[in-house]
Amino acid sequence: MAFIEVKDVFKEYAQDAVIKTEALKEINLTVAKKDFICIAGPSGSGKTTLLQLVGALDKPTSGKIFYGGEDITVLSSGRLADFRLRKIGFVFQAYNLINTLTALENTEYVMLLQGVNNKERREKAEGILKKVGLGDFLHRRVNRLSGGQQQRVAVCRAIAAEAEVILADEPTANLDSQTAAGLIELMRQLNQEKGTTFIFSTHDKLVMDKADKVFQLKDGRIV
Description:
Elements lengths: L3 E11 L5 E12 L4 E5 L6 H8 L7 E6 L2 E2 L5 H11 E4 L11 H12 L3 H14 L15 H14 L4 E5 L7 H18 L2 E6 L2 H6 L2 E6 L2 E2 L1
Parallel strand pairs: 3-8, 3-9, 6-7, 7-8
Antiparallel strand pairs: 1-2, 1-4, 4-5, 9-10
């Protein structure tokens, strides 16, 4: 049985009472457990929208999305929030970090919500941040970090929570090639050793070359 299944999904956005924009059209996608896959395509093709639907941040206009056979499109908002906390790790293009917290505190944050004890979450967060070259910035507030450094913190936060699935929207944007390669290698290691499923949206050939599968989106359709 498929781990994640997207069936006949359409997503429309209403611009006003009359005009509607179709962001996704008849999307069918099957993801197996431990997959390491990419959603590729030009800007405006629907990549971010698809990740948001798979991550239960939004609901499709029509169609179904299944996790382990369970239709998440019919879950209540409370159950969806718990599902996201326990099952999904997110890396957003806009980082979505908490500016008043340090790099270490941001990395710990989801683990704190999950109830992980202080010692375990601190050790795990420190170890992951050091792996991506941020060992000297553990206690620096993220609003004093560069864009590339903030991107790495966002990735570390998703990894630290040990989600079943990590959804990463352009995870190597703002990174130099060496740092990007190290980050993808860390994700690949987590994928292979922990069995974490990764779904990326990307323009980056480096990421696509590392993927098990690449799905091309164009004008809201998988081509």
